[in-house]
Each structure stands twice: as structure tokens, then as C-alpha cells.
Amino acid sequence: RRLVKLQWTYPGSLRANESISLHIVLGLAVSIYFLVFRGGLYEGLKRSLYVTGRMERAKQHVVQHGKDVPDGKQFRKSELPSKFAPGHKTMEGFGKSTPEEIKRKKKEKQERKHQQAMREERNRLKRQREQGLDAIDDASRPIKTPRKDGDDVSSQAAERPNRREKKNANLSEEDRRRNEFRNKLNCCMRNADFKKAIEIVKDMETENFTLDQQQYAQMFNLCASSGEDDWKEGEKMLDKLNREMRESKLTENLASGIVKFCSCTGKHKEALETWTRMVEERVNRKRRTYGPLFALLSDGRDMEAMFDVYKDSQTEDVDLLEEDFLNIIKACVATKKTKRIFEVLEAMMELIYSLQPETLQSLKQVFESMDRRCKFTHINDPKGFCPECKKNLISLDLTKDELSQLCDQINSLARVGDAQSAAFDAFKSWLNRSSLPDVIIDGANVGYYSLRPDQGEKLSYMQVDKIVQWFKERKMKPLLVMHSRHFHKDALKDKPQEASVVQRWRDEKILYSTPPKMNDDWFWLYAGAWCSKQKGKVFIVSNDQMRDHHFQASSL
């Protein structure tokens, strides 16, 4: 309570009768630290007394716990007691239980577990009595024994009921049998085995089970994917479905399966009736509904129905694919509806930004059938001058406002959860404090170029490095964006050359590894838009046409 002159004494060798006025602040801070983070009030008080040099109190405190301290002894940190003396009311720290309390709590916990096990056993026997099953004698149950090193636990695991068995325990025999058929059909769907699925359906009919709409949809999709020999079975199923579910409302899944099957078998009437029924019942229509219809009507047999379906797809705001537009154009050529062709081409231009070689050849035949001269050419002029039509192609540059809007769209699409939002925010922060790149490289797209990952071919790190070095030789700073799975220890195992290349990328700070469970496309897309907004002109190296991302951004 009185002002004391501040002084400091070397803490390595403090005597019990020395004092330091800083103990008021420093001692309190050390005590709080050990109380909060180390869980011991006595330990904190002891350390604070040592650090501040109030050794008279240390002497009294140590003597209280069973150790005498002679006057004038020099105390060091190692000499102070670190544990409570035997017989103290607490064992190792402040606020912990005594041995008697620990035993009592352990006994109460065991009693609660025993009571819970008894309740579960009574409920199990009650369920068995309700189902008319005999109770299982306790002696016949497998005894759970602790696993030892080297024990084979597969037999014990087999004896324990799995989750599906527990779930089926409350089901009736009919429901259990129905679930078995459903699982078998799902297995046939995964293996694309239509013949096996037909056998299962016949077994279901033998036991007086009927297919639901989901199972009918599976069968129609399987039948459409199989050969012509199986289409007769599909026609029988279609007739059976019409008898059983004529009054039931269609689901999108079932209707799309019927349309797909009818498209394969050339059943115009049934396919259009199904689509008309979907419109009348206001069933949601997807692209998988329209695609088979356009393929079925591409012969131009019913142009009125073709354009009714096309207008309906525009009303439902469904993004059609390249093959869908091509089927519509083929129907227009077959019926010489030339005005309609240009209408479809304008809509196609809004959605499809690059065409496959097969589509280009088909379009060439379309224009030649209209007595138009067609010729392919390559435009390499920096101003986009076409040597054939003597015109300059328009450069579609984005304004800063459009780039800001694009960044906002990508940001909203990439942030789908708390973890993803935090990861994307970290990327934006990193991008903001880093120097702007001249070129952004989609590493996975470049690394897999001309390779077949579906056939086991791995990403080529050396191929990516060639692109990186090409730009560096031209004094352009690259930013390489790749997913973190490409840098896992197993990915670079036994590849010292590739590992050294990756380490060089990291040392040069040109690599950004995107986190798991996130699409790396959002990162290099955002980097391209944001850097273009800041710098004015940034290149992106990728073979990805970004069609899926374009559809998602258009939906916003």
C-alpha cells in the first residue's frame, strides 16, 4: 500500500531475505499464467515467488509443506518443490479431486453404464416378443474379449450386427424382402447388367412385389443403354407401367427414363405423350429430358413438335448442349427451314463458345446444302483480320465493372461453406499482398494435356515446368495454380526429379496449392479476373472451356 522504489536484482541467485518491488505486477502475472494455462495455483505462486525474489514467503510456504529451509540459503529454480507433499488435500494441482472422490465417481459411472445396458437388453427382448421371435439366450451370445496383439478379430467383427442388420431388425419380413430386391437392383444399375435386373424383376413378380417409380426409371435407363435384343423387355415394362401407374403423377426421374428409352427405340408418340404429360402436370424438366427428344425428332418428321420442345426448353431456362443444337439444325435442314437455322445459331452462340470438329463438319454440310460457300481458315492476325471475308473480328474485352461483377460471381460460387469461405478468403488475401503475375497457368489442365488419367496416366510435372520456363524466358511472371492432391507425399514418391521441380516452384513463390474439397478452377478464374482488373491485361493458359462454370455463373 505504499510506493516502493523500483529496483532489480539478478534472478539467477536470490537470497530468501531479498525483495524486489516488481513482485506486485510480475508475481501476479506469473501466478495467473500458471493458474490458467498450467492448472496449478500453488505452482504459479511458487514460481512467482522465485522469479520476484520474495524468498521469505517462499521459505514459509515450503516449510508449510514439509520441508525446512535454513536462513540465507540461495534458492534456484531446480531446488524449489515441484509437487505437493504427501498427505496434502489435493494430489497434483489446484481444484483436483481426492483419491476417495475419484473412486466414488468411477463407481457411479460404472453403475450408470450397467443400468443403460440393462435397459437396452429389456428393449431388445420386448421387440423380439412383438415380432414373434424367440428370445436369444444370453449364453448363446458371443462374449466380447479384449483384443490382443496378433489376434484375428474378423470372426468377432462378423458376429457383431452391422448397421443395416440393426435397421432391418425392426422391419417386417415383407419390408425386409423388399429392401433386398432394391439393393440387388441398385447393384445391377451400377454394373449396367440389364439381364440380371430382369431376373430380379421376375423374382419380385413371383413374390407379388411391384416396382416403384424409382425402380422403373432404373430399368428404362438400363434398357436404353443395352442392345436391341433387350428392347422387347423394355416395351413390356412400358405397357405394364401404363397399366399400373396411369393415374399416378409422373416424377422427373421416371419421365426422363421413359423418354430416353423411347428415343432409342424410335417411339415418337410415346415420347411426346410423356413430355406433354410432364408439361400438364408441371413436372420439372431437365436437360436429360430434352436431349433424347431432340435426338428423336432430328429426322424432321415433326417440326412443329420439335420447336414446341425447343421453346419449352427456353421457357424452363435449360442450358442445351452442342449436340442438342446440332440435332435441331439437322431437322431444319431436312425440312428446309432456313430461317429457323439462323435463329437456332444465334441461341447457340450465346451458350457454346467453341465447337468440336464433328460439329464444324456438320455445320459445313448444313451451309453447303443451302448453296453457301464454306471454307475453314485460321486467323493469326493481331487485329483479328479474316483473309476470307475481309473483316476484322470484334475483340470482346471486359470493362472494369464487368470484371468486378465476374469476381463477385466467382466469389459467391466458391464460398459454399465455412471452411471453403475461409480458404478462399485466405487466397484473396494472399493475392492482394503478392506482386501481380503476367500469366496464370491452370497446372492440372497443362499437366494432363494429351494424357489419359482414366487409363492410369499420371500428371506430368515436367510438362507443366516447360510452360513455366517458356514464360520466364520471355520475362513474364507466371502464377501456377494446382490442387494440393498433386503434392501429396504419395504423388511424388520415388520421383526425385519431379520433387525438385516442385520445390523450385515453391522457392520461387510462383505456386499456389489450392486446399482439399475445393475446385481449383475457381482459384485461377478469380485470379485471372482480379489481376486483369488491377493490371489491365493478364493471360490464362488452360485448355478448359469452362462450360460448367459458365452455366453456374449464368444462373446468378
How is the topology of this model organized?
Layout: E1 14-15, H1 23-38, H2 41-52, H3 55-64, E2 74-75, H4 99-130, H5 154-159, H6 163-168, H7 173-191, H8 194-206, H9 213-225, H10 231-244, H11 252-265, H12 268-280, H13 287-296, H14 303-315, H15 322-334, H16 338-351, H17 357-369, H18 400-414, H19 418-433, E3 439-442, H20 443-447, H21 461-473, E4 478-483, H22 496-507, E5 511-514, H23 520-535, E6 539-541, H24 547-555
Protein name: ribonuclease P
Biased composition (Basic and acidic residues): 61-80, 98-151
Cofactor: Mg(2+)
If you had to describe this structure to a student in words, what would you say it looks like?
This protein is mainly alpha-helical and about 550 residues long. Among the domains are: about 1-95, no CATH class; about 175-270; about 400-555, Rossmann fold, CATH 3.40.50.11980. About 55% of the residues lie in helices and about 5% in strands. The protein has helices at about 25-40, 40-50, 55-65, 100-130, 155-160, 165-170, 175-190, 195-205, 215-225, 230-245, 250-265, 270-280, 285-295, 305-315, 320-335, 340-350, 355-370, 400-415, 420-435, 445, 460-475, 495-505, 520-535, 545-555, and strands at about 15, 75, 440, 480-485, 510-515, 540. Helix 9 runs parallel beside helix 11, helix 11 (about 250-265) packs antiparallel against helix 12 and helix 13 runs parallel beside helix 15. The longest helix has about 30 residues, at about 100-130. It is flat, with a radius of gyration of 38 Å.
